[in-house]
Specification:
By secondary structure, this protein is of the alpha+beta class. 24% of the residues lie in helices and 26% in strands.
Length: 767
């Protein structure tokens, strides 16, 4: 089934009325948090307070690479109002931490490896006192030459005891001697995108009478954060509790553990609650960014443009520490050829340490970088053959049953050709009026420097793909409990709501399964069973699946006495609009009457089928599932000054099943807009490893005025049979695809190669 839009090009909620449920799966149920967030009363970590509160501040390195000669905290300790100053010497447990590899120190001890690395932390009775005390800590550095070029990391002296190479994946698929009649090559560079969350990091740590500590933070993976904190504090996990506060937006692993760990250490040292609210500059310095990437490609095609072989070298700059670079590299190498049929592929991928800021998980990590490169290669082939770029892509489009370069068969729905045809055939926007008065139609906005005569329009295409869930043997599991009491249902699940809509989905699942309208989702903490991190659409799949299973178990408990009374099985009973009826009409009652005096509950898990690590040749069934997207970009480019205006992005996406139309639309539009930033403006500059302009003035995020018209022209609802509800994650794949489509459109407008993201003005000037 497909959902198509004509002139009104977005999915809409089903109208309420006879036969149309006001809630449940398929309805545009609004978020339960939308009103309090709009009113400004939603409790974020920065809003928390506790009796006897102290304030924390962190001293960070001003250098990208330096040897620490000495640290003198005496001046800070002597300041009135200062309660504690801690360094690496005050870490009672494990001094290193990390998401996948424990290679990152809580506080630098002998060597500083990136700008902004924590050196010391202070607790004082006023935030200004804490900041001044942190500045009063005297650190003597021996400044070292930083390694900032990832290509030089191979020959440089080791920056870390584990060496500079984090991972190397050599993918070998097919015949190395295969060659095509046509060969195109390209060198591509992708910049460092920051997730730029709406609110900077903040947290509160409260010591407990039993010697433990509670952390109130905007964690997206509370159980993993708890375990890292416990190891650092020298405590058992049951002595550390993480309570998830409101998350002010997350397009990555929201919280850096290096931010949380000093907070708890200070609370344990002082015996007082301690609060830390990061400045925007600290936020830019502390959390992970998208991997800057260097890509070299060679595509072989036959005379008809069908791909014969793809050769590529992919180099990811991991920054100072490993973080999630191994996973990002696996995605980049596995999807290096894109959603195309490629019988022969030979890919070399590396992730290396440098003295640049750490890189990590950001939506579509690995996949975005290679999408920009392989789509540029497809444009080159089309140009050489004189073939329409969309037609060339259709000739090579992947479908269900095709083989990835990793040797894995694509068993999930892969309607790539259908998606591409939908955006290709969608009507193009009207041309701008050639009048000086209509200045909004010029690249650069009102009163821009451009001239209408210098504006060229370009149309380009992008096809993208992403993985769903973790990969390479990651044990994806989530646990949920559904309780029903006094006519109200409560969902208990440690899946963190980061803006992806999980709490809304959980309510819809229970409403549809049990016919109960009043559904509450409990706040998340580590007293609940783990649900895993909030990334790659996990919670729609595994946590939504766990909620569904628990709700169905409660449904059986509810219906069993009625079925027994009337001598029938529960399968012959149905719940619709709060009423329980039998197939023959003999039984008809309300859910409220059936629940009277009862308290029901059930706990269930969801665990997708296992995957396996890539072997020494880059082969293996590494992914649970995949999602695909096609985007057609229309841009106007001033070919004299190089300014670019994105006029329209037409989007077609395979979504499996639409669970909440309004929410799905918002997720796609947000993902596309984040991709616009990666394509045109967002690049965290780090000359010699120093973050330049770490603020929202120097880092150019797209605003509402920069967002183009986004036309969702088709949503393909071909359900993935192995996924609960058959749904696929929606937000990552448009992020991956839109930068490639925009670059393709700029190439079409200017005739320039456009081999770098974000696109520089000089790259958009026609020669």
């Amino acid at each position: 089934m497909t959902t198509e839009a004509g002139t009104a090009t977005t999915p809409t909620a089903a109208p309420e009325g006879p036969g149309q449920p006001p809630h449940g799966i398929g309805a545009s149920l609004p978020s339960a948090e939308s009103r309090v967030k709009t009113e400004g009363t939603f409790p974020y970590a920065a809003d928390l307070w506790a009796e006897g509160l102290l304030w924390a501040a962190v001293l960070r390195s001003p250098h990208a690479h330096a040897r620490i000669v000495s640290i003198d905290t005496s001046h800070a300790l002597d300041m009135p109002g200062v309660h504690a100053v801690i360094t690496h010497e005050d870490v009672p447990g494990e001094p290193l931490h990390g998401r996948r590899t424990a290679d990152r120190p809580v506080f630098a001890s002998d060597v500083v490896r990136h700008h902004g690395e924590p050196i010391a932390a202070v607790a004082a009775d006023h935030p200004d006192t804490a900041r001044m005390a942190a500045a009063a800590v005297i650190v003597e550095y021996e400044v070292l030459e930083p390694v900032t070029d990832p290509e030089k990391a191979f020959e440089a002296e080791p920056l870390h005891p584990d060496g500079n190479l984090i991972r190397h994946i050599p993918l070998r698929h097919g015949d190395p001697e295969a060659a095509g009649e046509l060969v195109v090559e390209g060198l591509y560079r992708i910049g460092r995108q920051d997730p730029a969350p709406i609110g900077a990091e903040a947290g509160l740590a409260v010591p407990r009478p039993d010697g433990g500590v509670e952390l109130y933070v905007a964690s997206t993976d509370p159980h993993a954060d708890r375990d890292r904190a416990a190891a650092c504090y020298g405590l058992t996990p049951d002595h550390v509790k993480v309570v998830v506060t409101g998350v002010p937006g997350a397009t990555a692993d929201r919280e850096d553990a290096g931010f949380q760990l000093p907070l708890g250490l200070l609370a344990l040292r002082t015996g007082c609650p301690v609060k830390l609210t990061a400045t925007r500059e600290e936020s830019f310095l502390s959390h992970a960014h998208r991997h800057p990437t260097l890509l070299r490609y060679r595509h072989h095609a036959d005379a008809e443009g069908r791909l014969v072989k793809v050769e590529a070298q992919i180099l990811l700059d991991a920054g100072a520490y490993a973080d999630t670079s191994s996973e990002a590299l696996a995605a980049a190498v596995s999807f290096a050829c894109g959603p195309y049929v490629v019988p022969n592929a030979f890919i070399e991928g590396w992730a290396v340490r440098t003295n640049n800021p750490p890189s990590g998980h950001v939506r579509g990590e690995g996949a975005l970088q290679v999408c920009a490169a392989y789509e540029a290669q497809m444009d080159k082939i089309a140009k050489k053959l004189g073939v329409d770029p969309a037609e060339l892509r259709l000739r090579n489009a992947m479908a269900t049953g095709d083989i990835l370069p990793t040797g894995q068969t694509v068993t999930c729905p892969a309607p790539v050709a259908e998606l591409l045809a939908a955006v290709r055939d969608f009507p193009l926007p009207e041309l701008p009026k050639d009048t000086p008065e209509d200045e909004w139609l010029l690249p650069g906005g009102p009163e821009g420097a451009g001239e209408p005569a210098a504006v060229r329009r370009g149309v380009g295409y992008g096809l993208g793909m992403v993985q769903l869930l973790g990969a390479e043997g990651t044990d994806e599991v989530s646990t949920a409990t559904v309780k029903v009491h006094d006519g109200m249902a409560t969902v208990i699940c440690a899946a963190v709501e980061t803006g992806q809509g999980f709490t809304t989905l959980a309510r819809q699942i229970v409403q549809e399964t049990l016919g109960i309208e009043d559904v509450r989702v409990a706040p998340v903490d580590t007293d609940q069973p783990p649900a895993g991190p909030s990334c790659r659409g996990r919670h729609t799949w595994v946590s939504g699946g766990a909620v569904e299973r628990a709700a169905k178990m409660v449904r059986t408990q509810l219906l069993q006495p009625l079925a027994h009374k009337f001598g029938m099985s529960t399968e012959l009973l149905q719940i619709t609009d709060g009423k329980i009826t039998s197939y023959d009409g003999v039984l008809s009652t309300t859910v409220t009457e059936a629940l009277e005096g009862k308290e029901l509950w059930a706990t269930a898990q969801c665990r997708p089928h296992p995957t396996e690590p890539l072997d020494e040749a880059g082969q293996g069934d590494a992914f649970v599932g995949m999602a695909f997207c096609a985007i057609r970009a229309v841009v106007d480019v001033d070919i004299e000054i190089g300014s670019v205006r994105v006029v329209e992005l037409a989007v077609a996406q395979d979504v499996g099943r639409i669970l909440n139309p309004a929410q799905l639309k918002a997720r796609i539009e947000a993902g596309v807009t984040q991709g616009v930033g990666a394509a045109l403006t967002e690049n965290l500059r780090t000359p010699r490893g120093i973050v330049r302009h770490p603020d929202l003035t120097g880092y150019a995020l797209p605003t509402a005025l920069d967002a183009p018209d986004i036309r969702i022209v088709k949503l393909v609802e071909e359900r993935d049979v192995v996924a609960p509800f058959g749904a696929k994650a929606a937000s990552a794949v448009p992020v991956v695809t839109s930068p490639a489509a925009i670059a393709s459109a700029v190439r079409a407008a200017t005739g320039r190669p456009v081999n770098r993201l974000p696109i520089r003005p000089q790259a958009a000037v026609a020669t």
